[in-house]
TrEMBL record:
Domain of life (superkingdom): Bacteria
Alphabetized InterPro entries for the sequence: FAD-dep_OxRdtase (IPR006076), FAD/NAD-bd_sf (IPR036188)
Disulfide bond listed as a keyword: no
Alphabetically ordered keywords of this record: Oxidoreductase
FAD dependent oxidoreductase domain mapped to chain residues: 3-344
Name the record gives this protein: Glycine oxidase
Top enzyme class: oxidoreductase
GO molecular function, one term: glycine oxidase activity
Length: 363
């Protein structure tokens, strides 16, 4: 029996496990597939909400804390595991922004670095960007991280700890409930018990709570993406235009994303999305028409109202908690979401006021 059973080994589940074991707790981490194989793997890895001024203050609070923590987190993980998450602090351009005035006002209010720059600034750094633009918004501190490698390094970090038991390919059949107290989960292979059970299963979190007659408003939102293999330097930093983005990797690969589709748990890729993503790619970076599409895939985001996650105990059930609903910002919000939750679970002073994320009154 461990101190905590965490159901869902994506970036939120793994970071929460890491926070807890670093504080001396023992953790059983359970996932129906392998670690980091769902939305953690499928996302783009921009360490900022897209158009961050359009989100509510609870999202901004988590994002701001997380953005500053990724620098030391990526360094720590590389030193611990030898796996480089490839954090790139190259900044982000946002082009053709309709509510530019709101963006600059938001940046001033929250003291976030953002500038309106001219064409020389833009094209001197991104020579392959489509022609004809005279200005852009520039956020120099925005990072991107190679999310599959982040997942790999987090798993390696946990695997090294004697305080962690990994249960991959263990699909949860039910929560173990006794007189209103949850004390673990039942899988096809075994019962896994602990002092507290925490649901961090992303888009599947609501499904796990349905048998308890809890309607958690977290639902799957499909996103399709594609990747080109291009020469290093074709794109140097994140570029956001018309709601979509290009993200460069260190090896020259360039990600294009993403769609927003309400299709239940269907992860099938479609020709329509393929064509739309390709059109987006060559409209932002015309020279991508010269390079091959390496892969086209989809993943399921944990959609929630306004993208504000649910973090904390589940009302009416002792020993049960949730950390889910980060929507499009799972990687962005994960460090703060998990540090905050660890503070609550361990009785520490919270790094952020937790009231906005509690389930009480929201479910």
């Amino acid at each position: 029996m461990s101190d905590f059973v965490i159901v869902g080994a994506g970036v939120v589940g793994m970071m929460l496990a890491r926070e807890l074991v670093q504080a001396g707790a023992t953790v059983s981490l359970v996932d129906r597939v392998a670690c980091a194989q769902e939305s953690t793997w499928a996302g783009g890895g921009i360490v900022s909400p897209l158009y961050p001024w359009r989100y509510s203050e609870p999202v901004t609070q988590l994002a701001t804390w997380s953005q500053s923590s990724y620098l030391h987190l990526s360094q720590d993980l590389q030193e611990e595991t030898g796996c480089d998450p490839e954090l790139r602090q190259k900044g982000m351009y946002m082009v053709d922004v309709e509510d530019e005035r709101d963006a600059l006002a938001w940046a001033a209010r929250f003291n976030r670095p953002m500038l309106k720059v001219d064409a020389t600034h833009l094209y001197s750094r991104e020579a392959n960007f489509c022609s004809g633009y005279t200005s852009a918004l520039w956020m120099p501190e925005v990072c991107s991280i190679r999310n599959p490698r982040l997942g790999k390094s987090l798993r390696a970090s946990l695997e090294k700890s004697p305080r962690v038991a990994l249960y991959e390919h263990h699909e949860v059949k039910q929560l173990l409930l006794d007189n209103g107290k949850v004390h673990g989960v039942r899988t096809a292979q075994a019962d896994i018990t602990g002092g507290k059970t925490i649901i961090t299963a992303g888009a599947w979190s609501g499904e796990l709570l349905k048998p308890l007659n809890i309607s958690l408003p977290v639902s799957p939102v499909k996103g399709q993406m594609m990747i080109f293999k291009a020469p290093v330097g074709t794109v140097n930093r994140v570029i956001l235009m018309a709601g979509r983005y290009v993200i460069p990797r260190n090896d020259g690969r360039i990600l294009i994303g993403s769609t927003l589709e309400h299709a239940g748990f269907d992860k099938t890729t479609t020709q329509q999305a393929h064509d739309s993503l390709y059109k987006t790619a060559v409209s932002i970076i015309p020279s991508l028409a010269n390079y091959d599409i390496e892969h086209h895939w989809s993943g399921l985001r944990p959609g929630s109202p306004q993208g504000v996650p649910y973090i904390g105990d589940v009302p009416g059930y002792e020993g049960l908690a949730v950390n889910a609903g980060q929507f499009r910002n799972g990687l962005v919000l994960a460090p703060a979401s998990t540090r905050l939750h660890a503070d609550l679970l361990l009785g520490r002073e919270p790094v952020i006021d937790p009231a906005a994320y509690y389930l009480e009154g929201r479910v």
